[in-house]
Design brief:
The protein is α/β, with parallel strands linked by helices. It contains 15 helices and 13 strands. α3 crosses α4.
């Protein structure tokens, strides 16, 4: 009897799950592989929508749940949350004994997972390494996980060069594009009426999805910056606003409170959700005119739908982007000018419909699964630094 290779996928937030979906599906359907799924972080928090239920509704069997999210989003609270994760994953890995652990991105929940895997001598496959987001501490976490990981699945050639620059061996650094792009081709989208029923709002002549997270390395107050965004939105007429709430980042709850207050005062044109889920979010990208805020989705996914993005501030500074992304400062005037370009400039709107997504056109998930199936893991944990 052939022993299946155990692939342990860890996810702690709605965002990374959407990117991991087709990788997980591919592992699950591969006769040579066994999917071990560990859920942690915001997925298990009622405050953030208990999004582990979406994963179960998608048909995945959860191997372990590890609660780590605390009620505080202050720096001490987040550090303590990371400590709980480190202690918990010591037991998770001892019980599951995976052959390799798969992590995506740069969330703080993942750094203790990578640390526990390192000490447990479990190889790590890391997706979306080599990227730069200068305005958030995710930047340091991402590069730290790269140095702890053994297989690297990057999304552009520039990111591949950067991972190699960090001393990782080229034969273990694979540029397949972003796996979330597979969602574009493989998702059964909602109709416009179904989407409107899902969010509980009938879309006006123009509409926007707004996702804004604290830029965790900036000295400015995120409340002040988000208030500038709300002020700019207020000057738009006949535009529907769909807010998706923040992750469990430092001061994220402040922004969520401001979203709730704004929606209560503008129920005729706005709505807020913790998580749209993969199907509804991608369906929304088909019907809205653009994405606004500072989320990676506006940089990575939105260009595949031929819509524009207003990227505010420095949180995504350094990421490769298409011509459909408008970068602007955090003040109200700059945001409003960018919104007017996105919504009403015919030349810009024509350009966005024909933009090329630098993160690929799909197929990354299958290629990642193929590497996970066929790559020898013998002695892979004994890394050798690659000098340029």
């Amino acid at each position: 009897m052939t022993v299946r290779r155990k692939i342990c996928v860890v996810t702690g937030s709605r965002a990374e799950y959407g990117h991991l979906y087709w990788v997980m599906k591919g592992i699950e359907e591969d006769a040579a592989l066994e999917l071990q799924l560990v859920i942690t972080g915001m997925h298990l928090s009622p405050e953030f929508g208990l999004t582990y239920q979406e994963i179960e509704n998608d048909g995945f069997v959860i191997s372990k749940k590890l609660e780590t999210t605390m009620s505080s989003d202050t720096p001490p609270g987040i550090v303590k949350s990371m400590g709980i994760g480190l202690i918990g994953f010591a037991d998770v890995f001892e019980e599951l004994r995976p052959d390799i652990v798969i992590l995506l991105g740069d969330r703080f929940e993942l750094l203790p997972v990578a640390s526990a895997a390192l000490i447990s001598k479990i190889p790590i496959g890391h997706i979306h390494g080599g990227e730069i987001t200068a305005g958030a501490f995710d930047e340091g976490i991402r590069h730290a996980i790269t140095k702890l990981a053994h297989l690297h699945f990057v999304s552009t050639e520039e990111y591949r060069r950067r991972v190699i620059q960090l001393g990782e061996r080229p034969e273990y650094v694979f540029n397949f594009g972003a796996p979330c792009i597979d969602n574009v081709a493989n998702t059964e989208f909602l109709s416009r009426s179904q989407f409107e029923a899902f969010i509980g709002l009938k879309l006006m002549g123009k509409s926007l999805i707004v996702t804004y997270h604290p830029a965790t390395l900036e000295a400015s107050n995120p409340r002040d910056e988000f208030n500038e965004l709300l002020g700019a939105i207020d000057e738009l007429e006949n535009v529907s606003i769909i807010f998706t709430k923040t992750n469990a980042d430092t001061n994220g709850r402040q922004i969520n409170e401001m979203i709730d207050s704004y929606v209560m005062e503008n129920v005729e044109k706005s709505v807020s959700v913790f998580s749209l889920g993969k199907q509804a979010y991608l369906s929304g990208l088909k019907f809205v005119d653009g994405v606004v805020g500072n989320s990676s989705s506006g940089v990575i996914e939105a260009p595949s739908f031929g819509i524009g993005t207003v990227n505010i501030g420095n949180r995504q500074e350094g990421r490769v982007r298409s011509s459909s992304v408008i970068d602007c400062r955090t003040d109200r005037g700059a945001i409003l000018r960018a919104l007017e370009t996105l919504l009403f400039d015919p030349e810009y709107r024509k350009k966005t419909r024909n933009t090329e997504n630098p993160y690929g056109s799909g197929g990354a998930s299958d290629k990642i699964v193929e590497i996970l199936r066929n790559t020898s893991l013998k002695e892979i944990v004994k890394k050798q630094f690659y000098d340029l």
